[in-house]
Amino acid sequence: MSIERMQDAKDSTQKSVALFLICITAFKHEIFDIGHVSTSDKVVAVLFATILVVTFWFLERIVDARLDKIWIFRAIAMGADNIEGVWLDVVRDNGGIRCGALLTICYQDSQYVISGEEYFPGGGAGGAFNTDMSVYRHRKINYIYNATEADGQTSMSGRGYYEFKGFRCMQFIGKFINDNSNRHYEVRGVRLSSVLHELPPGDVRGLSDPVIRYYKKGLRRKLSRVFNQRPEMTIAEKQILTVAIIKYFERFLQCKI
What pLDDT score does 180 carry? Predict the structure, then answer.
């Protein structure tokens, strides 16, 4: 499935409103023009119909606004194809891992926006990136991106894609191209919430309790995501997680992307 599922939810509400108005129009004589119905009853019927129309219109606006602004409504609409959240990935170049990244996928202005920060295996900052445009369909997102190196002066741009795997989109594989050099890179990523419990305690020492509690697996974590705001990570925490995920892929997946 694809991002069209959220649009379908909006369209369904609009169609319900339209169908109701059509029914009112088609049966207006039966509803309002029955000879033996008193004037007061007709007034009550008109008021009742008006209230229903306003209610349907209001519900339509709520669905439209909530899907755009509240992630839990989008998560319900997208179901197992939901890709929003915090991810960790590694970038492979020339047979080895070039860097890792902590990235966020969120829904803005009717499309998914990917943004993140890269770190090298030793913990040094690699740069930042974000997408300018994306299309998500059938568990695959194609995007156009811009990136800036840590020096703040060197920039690159290009295009790429992620293909999401697992029952609830817990991993992805993909590629991206640096248009400046025409160089191709392979990428593999995993949701932070699905891998945090697998990272050795020594690799993630230094993470704050709010971060650990928020991304920990289980029902309590899911409730935390619904009722609590996502904690902001420090630069040090981002470095810790990125280096940890590089070691994770080196150990368990052996860079076989």
Answer: 87
